[in-house]
Amino acid sequence: MKAIVVGSGAGGGIIAKELAKAGISVTVIEKGPSTITKNAYKHYDILNVGTEVSSTVCLGGTTLVTAGNAVRTCEESFKKLGINLSSEFEEIEEELHINTLPDSHFGEGTQKIMDAARSLGLEIQKMPKFIYPDLCKPCGKCAFGCPRDAKWTSIKFIEEAEEYGAKIVENTPVTDIIISDRKVKGVKSEDNIFEADIVILSAGAIQTPRLLQKIGIDAGNNLFVDTFVTVGGMLKNIKYNKEVSMNTLIKLDDIVLAPHFSEILVNKLKKYNARKKDVLGLMIKIKDEPSGKVTQDDVIKFNTAEDIALLARGTAIAGAILTETGVIPETLVSTYARGAHPGGTAAIGDVVDTNLQTEIEGLYVADASVLPEAPGAPPVVTILALSKRLAKHIINK
Questions:
Q1: DSSP structure class, residue 357
Q2: How far is C-alpha 340 from the chain's CA centre?
Q3: What is the pLDDT of residue 198?
Q4: Is residue 49 part of a domain?
Q5: C-alpha–C-alpha distance, residues 366 and 202, integer Å
Q6: pLDDT tens, position by position, 311-357
């Protein structure tokens, strides 16, 4: 049996590894090039579609520029669909050595936020991470690509897949899916044809639905992005820009808050002569409504009244916390709205079944496209768990 995996991010990497380990012939086709991790920021692909949405086009995908956050998301929603991911979550958490970081990796800025939140009666917890503390020297560069390879990325699974015989094809955008008699036969990249018995699309919530649309599947609806803003202000010489980002988490209804540095805030604070080391910030991330759409030519995503209300509530709470830390209240500013985790465009129960298969036999989806609702938090671990479950299904089948 031959399998093609389109994309090498969280979903694609683990599927390729698991299938190759089981002796299945696997080819991973990646649109972007390979890169050293510390240069991953050079491969950002930013779409301004009303809400700015970012992804990374390179081998390993967006896993290279995550903050290493490893929370379970959508677990109860999946159970309602008849999908129990408990064992897969446990397997992933063990394999990636997911844990909170030791106190040595919490800087002054993060600690001030933790103390301030507690003094305001808010429950705050340490963020579980797939960061290896013995390799991590806090530098604030998680979202650019770790210069010390101190966090898990999908590259590790891609390398394991290669050791088991998988073939990796880089710089090759898949342009179409080949089907015959409602069965998948392979994929095309311009004039190049790759034949296969099984195709797993892991190209992300923008490109995956576009490929499905080309073969007549009604995908691309109900796009969500986990909309977020970062609010911050001046606290001189706090040096939060050199800390591990998002090392703690405050959970509210459909909102999460986490310490976060953004250079946008520094630019907005120029009149105060702010330097990077003088800014302390909090990210406000919401479970946004699925108000977006992906077509062949456009991506549309706007914030609904409910989204704006959630952002306003989170911003008010963030302002109170930051003021409690000692941030000068009149310096508080916010970034524009951005999207962190696009998904929902090939959702379970809509475009794929509970085994992540489309109406085309042998054609599966294993990325954030299949999520039934906005996670409101980083979905990497959830995508890994879903994809591991799919790999088991394919191997058993």
A1: B
A2: 7
A3: 98
A4: no
A5: 5
A6: 999 999 999 999 999 999 999 999 999 998 999 999 999 999 999 99
